[in-house]
Each structure stands twice: as structure tokens, then as C-alpha cells.
Amino acid sequence: PPPSGAVPRGSGKGRPPLPGARVGGFAERTTEARALVGQTLGVGSRGVQLERWAGQTTTAWVYAAARQDRSEVTVKVLRPQLETPERRRAWAALARRGSLPGTPEVLEGSAVAGKPAYLIYESLTGVGLDRALARDALSESERESLLFDLLTIVAGAHAAGLAHLDLRPSKICRGSEGLFLLDLGHFGALGASAPLRELLDPRYAAPEQAAGAPGDIATDVYQLGMLAHKVLFGRLPFVATRAEDFWELQLNGEPDLSAAEGLTRTVLGQALAHDPQSRYPSAGALLSALYGV
After folding, report:
1. Which residues contact residue 93 at a Cβ distance below 8 angstroms, ignoring those fewer than 6 apart?
2. Of 98, 96, 54, which is closest to residue 73 (Cα–Cα)?
3. Averaged pLDDT, 213-232
4. Which residues neighbour 201 within 8 Å (Cβ) at sequence distance 6 or greater?
5. Residue 148 · residue 1 · CB < 8 Å
6. Cα 36 from Cα 217, distance rounded (Å)
7. Backbone angles phi, psi at 110, to 5 degrees
8. Burial of 174 (0-12, 13-18, 19+ CB in 10 A)
9. If we measure between CA atoms, which residue out of 201, 285, 263 comes closest to residue 238?
10. Is residue 151 classed exposed, middle or buried when 0-12, 13-18 and 19+ CB atoms within 10 A define those classes?
11. Per-residue confidence at 20, pLDDT binned at 50, 70, 90?
């Protein structure tokens, strides 16, 4: 199926939950996050006012905000609990990297001493992948098309030398015009000292991350294998109820691929190999193996 190739642009009217923002889900002081509402980040015409706290991601507090001309944007503030001077610099540098197809445009970034480190994104609308799968009752062909689009977006990142390292349904949103991938580069900006088990979702973490390594492009391929199984068959290839059990399965378990057949089963098996060197070298290679493109 052809990729949608489109990144949704949303006006933000009606103030729906921002894509990728989770309200709750982390044991931290949300009062501190909400206290930033009403403040202005930046100066002059480049300043943005934080109008509403919208939740939090793995690495950031998320706000609906407005520029001086009242145009709507999304602001992601590096969570203070994760701050180090190196991480602040790496966070702000993401704005200089530019945007890739299927990812929201980064408009600006800042890490001024004594102020929150933040990134300003274009305002987008959409729903998370899990919600889209449950809500929209997608047909088999629609699921295939969704997976094709996801692999195409991540393949573009890998071709640019970028790994996501935290691919999970909340990082993938579906709008009326297609998919977009959130937070590319955010996890990598934390560096090798990131507290992996505090931040990652064990259902999608790769074995090397379960063992304490931050990962690389091969890590994305594993996470894409987990997501592909979820998209195509409605469930993960591991079943557990506790986080620690998922960590153990990622380290030592064998994925149940009985729902897949033929080529799909072979491809998913290689993507989910425990040894990173045995996986496909990139999302582009996985896309080619699965869809012959």
C-alpha cells in the first residue's frame, strides 16, 4: 500500500489532549509542572505563553501555548528531574537539526541558564496509536497501510542517522491525513546515563535496553517489530501483567509469533532477534523485507 506521506497540521481548536502527552503516569510533582502555566518563555516576538499543562512524556512536560500573534504551538519542557548541563545543551540542539517527513516541525529551542530548557513545536492534532487501533476498528488493509507509513517515517530518520530509542504507541499519532512520529531525538539527548528502567515502557524496550544499554538504530528495529505485531495482530508477542515480568521477557523470553504466517513471521522473527547484530540494519531494510520496496 502507498504511504500517506502527510503530516497533519491542526489548529488546536477545542483543545483536545495534545498528541503524545500523557496526563499522569509518572511519580513526580505535577504541581511543579502546572506552576509554569501562565509564564512566558523567550523574549519579544519569539516569546510563547504557556496556556495549559497538557501532560508529560518520557522526557518532557507538555504545554499548549501561544505565540505573541496568538498562533498555537506546543511546548515541551525538559523535565527538571532529568536535567544536566549536557542534556540541556543536547535538548536545545534538537531545534537546529531540522524536521523530517512525518515528524512535527521544531520551531525553536532554548537552554538559557536559570530557565527551563524547552522546544517549541508546531501544533498538531491526532490520537495515539493504541487509541486509534481500538477506536477505529481498522481493516486488515488499513493496518497494513498504517504499518507501512510508520516504517517509512522511521526509515527516513535512520537514513539521516537518527535513532528514536523509545518507539511505543504513545509516540505515534494518527490524524486525518496520516501518521506522525513524536519526540525523535528526545531520548537520545539524555545520553548513556539515562535511567532506562524508569523511563522506558518495558513492553517495547529492546533486550539491550533491559540490560542497561541505551541502544542504537538496531534498538528501533526491535521496537518496530513489537509495534508491527501489535498493529497487525492486535496484541504484543509477549504476555505479562507486571513491568518486571516484561523486563525479564525482553531479556530472556522468546516472542510468540504464532499469529503470523509465512514471510511476515520470518521478518518479525528477525526484527525481534535478541542479538542486535542479527536484526535488520535499519527500518528501511525491515520495510523492504516486509513489503518488497
Report:
1. 109, 189
2. 54
3. 96
4. 166, 168
5. yes
6. 35
7. -150, 145
8. buried
9. 201
10. buried
11. low
Q: For residue 162, what are the contacts with CB-CB under 8 A and spacing of at least 6? A: 97, 100, 184, 185, 188
Q: Are the CB atoms for 109 and 92 separated by under 8 Å? A: yes
Task: Give 164's contacts (C-beta < 8 A, 6+ positions apart).
Answer: 154, 157, 171, 181, 183, 184, 185, 187, 188, 220, 223
Q: Which residue type occupies 195? A: P
d(CA 293, CA 287): 7
**Beta-strand pair 172-175/118-122:** unpaired
How high does pLDDT run on average in the chain?
87
Cell of 242: 507486571
pLDDT the model gives residue 186: 94
Q: Which residues contact 21 (CB under 8 A, 6 or more apart)?
A: 54, 55, 56, 57, 62
CB under 8 A, 24+ apart: contacts of 251-260: 251/207, 251/210, 251/211, 255/229, 257/229, 259/229, 259/232, 259/233, 259/235, 260/229, 260/232, 260/233
Residue 27, pLDDT > 90, answer: no
**Sheet hosting strand 172-175, strand order edge to edge:** 127-128, 172-175, 178-181
Pairing type for strands 178-181 and 127-128 reads unpaired
CB 50 within 8 A of CB 60: no
